[in-house]
Amino acid sequence: MAVYIVFDVETPNRANDRISAIGISAIKDRKIVADYYSLVDPETHFDSFNTQLTGISTETVRGAPNFAMLWQQIEPIMNKGILVAHNAVFDMSVLHACLRSYGIAWKPTAEYLCTVQIGRRVLPNMRHNLNVMCEYYGIALNHHRADSDSHACAEILLRYMESGVDVSKYIKQYRLIP
What we know:
7 helices, 6 strands
């Protein structure tokens, strides 16, 4: 049985090349077995839009690890399974940009799933925004909070599995080396 590492990132500005928070929820044996959250000092400016959306600002991240420091903690987690995100191309691209920006070599490709893409196939007649999906499934959500978003995404993936969806058919490869 596959292990899924569901993650969500928040960004400090519209460049979407740095992380200000990350939430990770691990799924093993069709259960959420661990949750992880950290603020991240993006070492760059915050746009007011992002601060309003996420509640994260320069003051909030003061004393938080930068991405390179954080990566030492989360890389073993990120290596344990198939990565999953809601609108995964966004989260994967931000992760990739951070790795590149900090000169961190990880691996050439990463397997991933996107709960939006799966949802569009299995529930084609509805919107697939995270808040809409959470409302549909009765999942608690504090939207644009990385820990809540990753946990909610994990719950959505579990709902797909419980309804008989073979999520392995939706696994893709994300190229991490330019």
